[in-house]
């Protein structure tokens, strides 16, 4: 969810930005991104920027919907818990 949250707040983030912000290892982040990519939630682009490779990630349309649905579910749970108290 941390990766999805970061990507939801930006149009696109580099692999390095995600890795540094989330304090993850390259391997761990790569594994999570691949899983999200296979699920269709994240789009990964590879290109060159000033002759250096640049890998970027962004949420796909289905990723945005899935994250929005998740946030809505959490909001409903919180509201229900508040009514119970």
CA radius of gyration is 15 Å
Strands ordered across the widest β-sheet: 1-3-2
Rounded mean pLDDT is 96
How many strands, what sense, and barrel or not for the largest sheet?
3 strands, antiparallel
- In total, the number of domains comes to 1
- The CATH homologous superfamily corresponds to Winged helix-like DNA-binding domain superfamily/Winged helix DNA-binding domain
Number of strands: 3
What is the approximate shape? elongated
Description of the structure:
The protein has helices spanning 2-8, 15-22, 26-38, 61-84; strands at residues 13-14, 42-49, 52-59. The protein has 85 residues and is α+β, with helices and mostly antiparallel strands. The chain has a single domain (2-84), classed as Arc Repressor Mutant, subunit A. Strands 1-3-2 form a three-stranded antiparallel β-sheet. A hairpin with a 2-residue loop joins strand 2 and strand 3. The radius of gyration is 15 Å and the shape is elongated. The two termini are 28 Å apart. The model has no long low-confidence stretch (mean pLDDT 96).
């Amino acid at each position: 969810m941390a990766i999805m949250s970061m990507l939801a707040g930006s149009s696109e983030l580099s692999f390095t930005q995600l890795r540094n912000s989330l304090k993850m290892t390259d391997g761990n982040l790569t594994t999570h991104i691949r899983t999200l990519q296979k699920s269709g939630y994240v789009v990964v682009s590879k290109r060159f920027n000033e002759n250096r490779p640049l890998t970027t990630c962004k949420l796909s349309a289905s990723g945005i919907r899935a994250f929005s649905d998740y946030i809505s579910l959490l909001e409903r749970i919180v509201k229900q818990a508040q009514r119970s108290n």
